């Protein structure tokens, strides 16, 4: 299983700069670290059914440069494949579909290694999994047979491999991402404007001193100096003044904040040639956003309160750093400072000075976190300072995905979970017209689940409803599920009309969505969908479910 | 940003546009069977007969062409002017390494054709604005798909489709965001119904004399220095140095400075060239600036640099090592190394071209390493002179090249959505047509669709009355147009009106000099558009846009003939209110990473063919260049010096400076 499919000798790209140029447009989304993660990814596609959606997904992963892919597909190419699958041409007719696809997809990017299976009668999915280097993620397309699905689920459990299920039929599709346990993301790429953290209500001594020095003679400064006070200094100065007249408290209510904003506005000089001061405008504009007491962001709160069920996971560097940050928070009542300063009107020299004050504090905070982390027994000593820096910079935006709900939430993937979500969706639909909300796409998901293991053979409306009923182990009583039966029937009719085949366009679109989420998972950047996304190609809509 | 906020989701009460025909069970699966079953026989037949046009074969185009072919569209025409670049290959999957520098349209056709031999693909390696693609040609298509990369071309196709009354499916992506919109004359909003962000521009003095941010120095390196030394010198005539009381003297000085710089141009390729250029722009010019004491009262004065001293310090540096690290912020000495090296590479190209007897003009291209290195190094050295932060080459590439992130996945999604909208268009179900936004960062959803917006009655492009006129271009004068078309055929009678084209006013009651001129002398050709503005205060007509069509057969005694009989011409009156439309909230560029815009289209436009098509305008006062009200706006601006302050530099696609002409 080491043979690499490659029909032609590809031109080897010259040096790192050529590669950087080729990937330039995506490096701007996920940087060199994301690209490195992609390039070390080893992806398996278990392709079945009409097989287009899996191939379209894989194409979108090969183009940005995953390291290696394997296609496992038992089918031989037939005439219908040629109509729906772009990566098969007339010369492929009758040949193993996996071989043809691996060859034609491989041409898309000579830097990606490709392989295929089964090559002989004795090859099976099981033997492939045994012989291959560890897979980073596995995706499979429906309909799939029970044996192969169980083999994959077993592998996923054993190796903690993300498993992505994709189903595209007619105008409908969905995909589900099954992650191995709780999946933390540090590099969530929050909106840049959201990341400003100036600590105006809890300034540290160096910042206080800076502001005092800048503003001690604020009224006697000449117009140039006064018009170039950085707004951080302006706000700190007037916050002090406010406190002096308000029993030592900061403005906290909306009314107080708008009063404070007026105080700042009124302090601007208007007798200068410009008739106002840009830096004071900036200061006033920043009041509502930056004059706010610290509160623990919900994402991080979830991290701090997380109860471990898996001892191996608990010792991962993410959780060790998380513990260290929690200790920092407990001690100081605040998070490590991210350290970036937004652009503001100021003299260059002063701005650089201000930047340095924030950077120095951020470095100090990160050093403290690193020290705490390294003191944690076991893997703590191996914690990488760069990882600590990234965590500290993004602490407020760290997010957990695929968290098993506590309390009365049924486990992910269970029948009870399906029932819970279904009841909620049907209840929402009852009031959907009043709230101007669109109808739930959950019946599409259920109907496709009903087709999970059927070929394009003889399914009909009743069979789909029956399959869904057995999936839910529940009678679809109208009391609880409203007109679900009717809705399922409608979807089933649409599916039957397509003879349970794939439409290229729907599969191509779905392949784009799935690949996008896989890139997020592989690079551990941005927040992936958690965990099921349903696409309705008739209404051009998606809906996400946590099932 | 949530694009749906301005337009709350509408209830999904519309009928499902599902196929109406019953499936016919086929004994054997054929290539076409899934399409036929899923689309229904009538839609499938419609698709097979449809002749469609796809403008742009880049990021969205490659995906879309594949989808169109496999959906079975009968005939697909592809127009693209561009050639394939290495940086396209991470997403434009019809292209391979060996196709670099070849025509996108031709290669895309070849690659896609073999997968469905039944579909006819016609490729045009040409500019969609070429005269061959006239209104008649546009009207021969059932649907037009825009998969374009720039505002100007999008506007052009929008206008042509409205004139030809062909439905247009407009699309764009940036990074993870994207959108699709159906444009049908009189039914849905057109591309220009919502104002678009206009190019970011900088005052000439900020760029040339008083930079305060890295971007100012980058624009200087790209649009001034590179252009003066290696660019097209005739661009100089386009410089307009808007003068007011305060900067008149400085503008004069700057003109002299540019002239002196152009003289140095003659020394390109000589050994002293690097030093000459360096000392001119980083010493002599800076010393002159520094001597203007008034300028530095409230600013830190710039520090001139000494070439020899700096070169000495840079001697020990390893050129290749410096060049390799595009992510690092180079020191001043490292920048000098890159400056000299890139200058040598560029000079060599000039000399080679000259000796081959070719024109030697080099314009900025973000993917041309030589120009990028030169701009990065020059900008950074200038930043050092003015005490501004330097940037890495990687960052400068984004800022100078106006790079919009682009990936395969987003293009795949958007192209798929385009085809789904095309189905509705083929069925004539415009009421179901959606404006779909791809907003992966919105909570728990990827796609948000809104009902198509209605046309904006005040839209300068589609809120007008459109008609055509046949003209004998050999004979017809402007007066013929006034007498035989506007006054009589269109029914203006004794009304006061003005005629203008994209250049300016051709005629109004006070401007009658052109009346006796032939239309051809006024630059009017077949497919020129003329705008007629009713200047009456009482119940004025909406603006009328006349598309000029060259008469194919003799017109008889009059050299101008309207396409309609006078009784069929029904020009609506202008709506009473004159309020400007609100910008429409859309997912836009620059929401995704720090893209700073100074390029041809204000941060929205990527040169590689996949970027957002709609951006809300920041300010309405600098609306559309082709705005039907353009001429009058210009008149006003000429008297409004305050407004001129922030409008001086506008760049065209080649990166050259064109200064707007107010």
Description:
- The complex is a heterodimer of chains A (547) and B (662).
- Chain A is an alpha/beta fold and 547 residues long.
- Chain A has four domains: 18-181 and 505-545, Rossmann fold (3-Layer(aba) Sandwich), CATH 3.40.50.720; 203-290, no CATH class; 298-401, no CATH class; 416-498, no CATH class.
- Helix content of chain A is 50%, strand content 9%.
- Chain A has 23 helices and ten strands.
- Chain A has an eight-stranded mixed sheet, sandwiched between helices. A two-stranded antiparallel ribbon of chain A has the order 7-8.
- Chain A is elongated and about 90 Å long.
- Chain B has an eight-stranded mixed sheet, with helices on both faces. Chain B has a six-stranded mixed sheet with strand order 11-10-12-13-9-14, covered by helices on one side. In chain B, strands 15-16 form a two-stranded antiparallel ribbon.
- Chain B is an alpha/beta fold and 662 residues long.
- Chain B folds into three domains: 32-197 and 407-451, Rossmann fold (3-Layer(aba) Sandwich); 204-236 and 249-401, Ubiquitin activating enzymes (Uba3). Chain: B, domain 2 (Arc Repressor Mutant, subunit A, Orthogonal Bundle), CATH 1.10.10; 465-568, Structural Genomics Hypothetical 15.5 Kd Protein In mrcA-pckA Intergenic Region, Chain A.
- Chain B has helices spanning 33-39, 41-49, 59-71, 104-113, 135-138, 151-164, 204-208, 214-230, 248-264, 273-291, 307-314, 319-324, 332-355, 369-386, 393-401, 408-426, 478-489, 630-638, 641-644; strands at 51-55, 75-79, 120-124, 143-146, 168-174, 177-183, 434-438, 447-451, 465-471, 497-500, 505-507, 529-534, 544-550, 560-562, 649-651, 657-659.
- Chain B is globular and about 80 Å long.
- Helices cover 34% and strands 12% of the residues of chain B.
- In chain B, helix 3 runs parallel beside helix 4 (104-113).
- At the A-B interface, helix 1, helix 2, helix 3, helix 4 and helix 22 of A face helix 1, helix 3 and helix 16 of B.
